Amino acid sequence: MENSFIILSVTMLVLSILVFIISEYDILNPVCIVTILMTISVLLATSCVNRWHLYMSTEASLLIITSIICFDIGGFWADWRIKKNLNFIVKEKEDCTFNIKNYKLVILCTLILILGYFQYKEFYAASQLLGNQSGPLDFSSMIKAIRPSIENETFKFSRWNSYRLVIAEMGVFCSIFCFFINSIVKNGHWLENIKYLIPFITFIPFILSNTGRGLPLDVMLFSLLSGTIIYQIKNGFSIKCKIRTLVFFAVCGGAFFIVFLALGTLSGKVSIGGRPPYEILAHYGGLSMPAFSIFLNNMPIETPYIGDTTLSDVYNKLRVIGMDVPQVKGFLPFVEFTGITTNVYTMMARYIKDYGVIGMHLIMALIAMFYVAFYDYVRLISRKYVVVAFYSLIPMTLFFATNDDRFFTTVLNTTTLYNFIILFLMFKVLV
Fold first, then answer.
1. Which pLDDT score, from 0 to 100, does residue 199 have?
2. Any long-range contacts for 158-161 (C-beta under 8 Å, 24+ apart)?
3. What's the gap between Cα 306 and its chain centre?
């Protein structure tokens, strides 16, 4: 059978160029983010075809292409409808002030440190319970002791662990947002507003006592999106500022990769073992594409339960209230190539398994409509800068579309609701 990587790469490159032009060179547009990242993932996999003997079936390539086309069509349709109703007139943002008094910053930092202490205490106790015999400062050993049990879903932290995290994280996000508003909108020098970044320093215990890389990446993505959107709004989405934003995205991508390697090495999930950085990047950034091809050929057996891989949070909540529903697992099995493995299959894989091919295409279009509508509301309709912060809470679906579903498993759950409520309260109390 013919390997379709070349055809897929060329097609995705053409799609990315078209989407970038149609979106008026706006890299922040959700359709741009997903299409370009998917293309980069395909190119990374294509460059390592001979190294790992990768194969992409024609069926898999067609599904990737059609799913991205559906995503793009859904997003552009939502954008067209909104601009048509607005008659292409953009509302100006209100002249607002986002200041946190010094005493409130001290209280916030103290609160985060106290919550971080209890977070670390529970984390260390859990690692000892699961076999860790190292000292209280050996974070790598603690993570390695806890992570397997979490992946097997045989261990969960307490509910208070989640509550502490939400409160501390939203406090940090509130202060970071104030930093950008005062540095960009109010034209203040960033050194004058450096105090707003102090809460992030007190948040480090939460990052160290986190078993994965999601938490620090959440902070990075929130900062990236909120900062660049505020910058573009301030400068009227001019071509010049869009180019600067594109360059900034590229720089942040490099920083993202460095943080990814560091946190992966700390947790034991990334083993460098003499491998060059590009090979590691291709492993985690591109291997989901050939894995998707294998996933289609070895489709898991259907179950009578709807959405048993995408709606695991819903099933868990129903089971908590006493309903007789199955114990569903969110982690997918590993697939092995020549000397390398992965258990991520793009965001489309779970949708196909749970809702079929037609359902997958429909979901891709609906997700794009949701994100583009929210994005257009933030930049075109609302006159309040604060809505940028709420939009920046949910970027994981876009930036991790090449790896796995984040919309059902991360956005459509109670944690997102808690995040919105606590962030709202943080603005009310602090600002």
1. 95
2. 158/122, 160/118, 160/122, 161/119, 161/122
3. 24
- Cβ(354)–Cβ(310) under 8 Å? yes
Taking Cα atoms as reference points, which of 96, 5, 128 lies closest to residue 58? 5
CA separation, residue 416 to residues 158, 238, 407, 413 (Å): 18, 32, 11, 6
List, for residues 174-193, the tens digit of each pLDDT value.
999 999 999 998 777 778 88
Q: How confident is the model at residue 326 (pLDDT cuts 50, 70, 90)?
A: low
pTM score, whole prediction:
0.90
Cα pseudo-dihedral 412, 415, 418, 419, rounded to 10: -90
pLDDT at 231: 92
H-assigned helices in 321-385: 346-376
Say how many residues make up the chain: 431
Six-digit token string for 12: 């995705």
32-71 burial, b at 16+ Cβ within 10 Å, e below that, comes to bbbbbbbbbbbbbbbbbeeebebbbbeebbebbbebbbbb
Query: Which residues are paired to 341 by β-bridges?
Result: 336
DSSP 128-181: HHTT--S-TT-HHHHHHHHHHHHHTTS----HHHHHHHHHHHHHHHHHHHHHHI
268-290 burial code (b ≥16 CB/10 A, e <16): ebbeeeeeeeebbbbbbbbbbbb
Helix axes 159-180, 214-234, angle to 10 degrees: 30
Residue 71 CA to its chain's centroid (Å): 17
CA atoms within 13 A on the CB side of 95: 2
pLDDT at residue number 310: 84
**Which residues, other chains included, contact 98 with Cβ-Cβ below 8 Å and sequence gap of 6+?**
177, 178, 181, 182, 385, 431
